[in-house]
Amino acid sequence: MEMQTENLMTAAQAALAQASEFAVSYAFSILGAIILIIAGFIVAGMVEKWVRRTLDRFPSFDVTLTSFLSKIARYAVLILVGVTVLAQFGVQTASIIAALGAAGLAIGLALQGTLQNVAAGIMLLVLKPFRVGEFVEASGISGTIQTIGLFATEMKTVDGLYILAPNSSLWNTSVTNYSRNPRRRNDLVIGIGYNDDIDLAQKTMLDLAASDDRVLADQEPATFVSELGDSAVNITMRYWTTTADWWQTRLDLTKAAKKAFDEKGISIPFPQRDVHYLPLDSKAQTTSPAKKSTAKR
């Protein structure tokens, strides 16, 4: 029993001696590592704030992109501090850097689709083919932009549906932005009967455009016969409005044109088709000479 107690005491004294020797040997390294860590966090915060303030000076940079880049700068400084701290204790940093590179490559291959969405999100935030609140159409979907994230974009359709579109699908396709330009042109096409007065119809449509304040006067409306259809003479009125008034102006002018045409006796015909009936006797008479000539041969 006494031997076991002596062995435990000897082991404890040896461990204490080794700890004291380790503390003495690495005291300066530990102190330097603590100072580096504290200074590293301070410098990382300063770098993050500096990047954020610098990017805020450029209106083209989105808030989401500014936050993303400032966070990257912060973590880059912290990683550099961590490698430097390990070097204080004699750790081979080259192997650590190689391991981090290999891990980054493996993660990149595993998250290839996700990283593609991140890259597309950065490009969308930098080039801004659309902004929050604009109505766009891309990849067969259309809606109002709600949020532009690094991974996906949230949209709301005209009938109130929620759409979450991956950024890569919006970046790798053509985007039609219906809200970007301040003005839009509209071609209002109305068909009238072939027996109606074309000049009167054109004048009526121009009067409607002139009486609507939403139709821009600096780009004068025009009317012309665009097509001689199967059932109607199609008259087109071309006019310009602001983008915000485009849709409602189109609806109001279409309704006003119908009422004005009714008051002036201008018809809007239904689709028509002429059918010619050929009696059976007529068919026999037209085919009999051919039969006779065939018989003569």
UniProtKB/TrEMBL annotation:
<dbReference type="Pfam" id="PF05552">
    <property type="entry name" value="MS_channel_1st_1"/>
</dbReference>
<dbReference type="InterPro" id="IPR011014">
    <property type="entry name" value="MscS_channel_TM-2"/>
</dbReference>
<feature type="transmembrane region" description="Helical">
    <location>
        <begin position="97"/>
        <end position="127"/>
    </location>
</feature>
<dbReference type="InterPro" id="IPR011066">
    <property type="entry name" value="MscS_channel_C_sf"/>
</dbReference>
<dbReference type="InterPro" id="IPR023408">
    <property type="entry name" value="MscS_beta-dom_sf"/>
</dbReference>
<feature type="transmembrane region" description="Helical">
    <location>
        <begin position="29"/>
        <end position="51"/>
    </location>
</feature>
<keyword id="KW-1133">Transmembrane helix</keyword>
<comment type="subunit">
    <text>Homoheptamer.</text>
</comment>
<keyword id="KW-0812">Transmembrane</keyword>
<keyword id="KW-0407">Ion channel</keyword>
<dbReference type="InterPro" id="IPR006685">
    <property type="entry name" value="MscS_channel_2nd"/>
</dbReference>
<keyword id="KW-1003">Cell membrane</keyword>
<dbReference type="Pfam" id="PF21088">
    <property type="entry name" value="MS_channel_1st"/>
</dbReference>
<feature type="domain" description="Mechanosensitive ion channel transmembrane helices 2/3">
    <location>
        <begin position="71"/>
        <end position="112"/>
    </location>
</feature>
<keyword id="KW-0472">Membrane</keyword>
<dbReference type="InterPro" id="IPR049142">
    <property type="entry name" value="MS_channel_1st"/>
</dbReference>
<dbReference type="InterPro" id="IPR010920">
    <property type="entry name" value="LSM_dom_sf"/>
</dbReference>
<dbReference type="Pfam" id="PF21082">
    <property type="entry name" value="MS_channel_3rd"/>
</dbReference>
<comment type="function">
    <text>Mechanosensitive channel that participates in the regulation of osmotic pressure changes within the cell, opening in response to stretch forces in the membrane lipid bilayer, without the need for other proteins. Contributes to normal resistance to hypoosmotic shock. Forms an ion channel of 1.0 nanosiemens conductance with a slight preference for anions.</text>
</comment>
<feature type="transmembrane region" description="Helical">
    <location>
        <begin position="72"/>
        <end position="91"/>
    </location>
</feature>
<feature type="domain" description="Mechanosensitive ion channel MscS C-terminal">
    <location>
        <begin position="188"/>
        <end position="268"/>
    </location>
</feature>
<dbReference type="Pfam" id="PF00924">
    <property type="entry name" value="MS_channel_2nd"/>
</dbReference>
<dbReference type="InterPro" id="IPR008910">
    <property type="entry name" value="MSC_TM_helix"/>
</dbReference>
<dbReference type="InterPro" id="IPR045275">
    <property type="entry name" value="MscS_archaea/bacteria_type"/>
</dbReference>
<keyword id="KW-0813">Transport</keyword>
<feature type="domain" description="Mechanosensitive ion channel MscS">
    <location>
        <begin position="114"/>
        <end position="180"/>
    </location>
</feature>
<comment type="similarity">
    <text>Belongs to the MscS (TC 1.A.23) family.</text>
</comment>
<dbReference type="InterPro" id="IPR049278">
    <property type="entry name" value="MS_channel_C"/>
</dbReference>
<protein>
    <recommendedName>
        <fullName>Small-conductance mechanosensitive channel</fullName>
    </recommendedName>
</protein>
<keyword id="KW-0997">Cell inner membrane</keyword>
<keyword id="KW-0406">Ion transport</keyword>
